[in-house]
Design goal:
The chain has 246 residues and is mostly beta strands. The protein has 2 domains: 1-46, no CATH class; 51-236, Immunoglobulin-like (Sandwich), CATH 2.60.40.10. It is built from 2 helices and 12 strands, in the order ββββββββββββαα. The protein has helices at residues 193-202, 228-236; strands at 2-7, 35-38, 41-45, 51-60, 67-68, 71-72, 80-88, 94-104, 107-119, 124-131, 151-158, 171-179. The strands form 3 sheets. The protein has a 5-stranded mixed sheet with strand order 6-12-11-8-9, with no helix packed on it. It is elongated. Mean pLDDT is 87; it is low at 1-17.
Length: 246
């Protein structure tokens, strides 16, 4: 699709050709648009085939309410959810695959792949991927092995469509997941008084009925409420965090 044609005139008669220098043309997303320049003409075209991953949100959905949750416990009762937004930034209708992966020091792990069919030019689509909380080494029998807590980078990939040249935005690394010992609210490797204080402040919090009091870091089973089940998990792990047993 031709977006713009610039003609530089009148020509200047000289012994050598004139050189035209211009700044790169950018599209609405701030990306450079390919240009062809010859004989005093600059032809600016939008790529015909171009898909992009534009956003990633990681969290969970207790009681049907989605919350962003970069920290998790192996005792969760609900899966992780990753919401991915992709856009067709080209001029042709496209079909392609989108995958969500976790990356840590040991490698990349594909957690799911979905197919997008016939996405119209300029259109976006939101995809949701679900998977279990990644494992916590050493839990529940060898607490020292759990420290430092494992951290996973979340990224999404849109497969390259035929004719696509701008592939830098087909991948987006955005967000971390940290898996912690149940009861370690403040992320210090201990399950002690500093964890009990925020837990007490969140007691009886409910993501639906009392959201202002709800703190997902105190919801050790991620059922959307902070009650007896969470207190039991805190008690079972009292002074049993990874750094409590050194």
């Amino acid at each position: 699709m031709l977006l713009l044609l610039l003609v530089f005139f009148p020509p200047i008669v000289s012994a050598s050709p004139e050189t035209v220098v211009y700044d790169p043309f950018l599209n609405s997303s701030g990306k450079q648009i390919p240009c062809d320049a010859s004989d005093g003409f600059v032809e600016v075209k939008e790529p015909d085939d171009d898909v992009a991953v534009t956003n990633i949100i990681i969290g969970a959905e207790p009681k049907g309410v989605f919350i962003e949750a970069p920290e998790a416990y192996p005792t969760w009762l609900v899966p992780y959810k990753v919401k991915v937004t992709v856009k067709n930034e080209g001029q042709n209708t496209e079909s392609f695959n989108v995958s969500v992966l976790l990356q840590n020091a040991t490698g990349n792990y594909t957690k799911g792949t979905q197919q997008v069919n016939n996405l119209a030019p300029g259109a976006t689509i939101n995809l949701t991927f679900t998977f279990a909380v990644p494992p916590l080494p050493g839990y529940p029998d060898n607490a020292p092995a759990a420290w430092p807590y494992p951290t996973y980078t979340v990224w999404a990939n849109a497969s390259v469509v035929p004719g696509e040249t701008d592939t830098a935005d087909n991948e987006l690394f955005d967000g971390l997941i940290k898996v912690k010992w149940p009861g370690d609210v403040n992320n210090d490797g201990h399950v002690t008084l500093p964890d009990l204080v925020p837990f007490a402040k969140s007691w009886d919090g409910d993501i639906v009925l009392w959201p202002s009091r709800y703190n997902y870091k105190c919801d050790f089973d991620m059922n959307g409420e902070i009650k007896l089940g969470d207190l039991v998990k805190l008690a079972k792990n009292w002074y049993k965090g990874p750094l409590d047993q050194e």
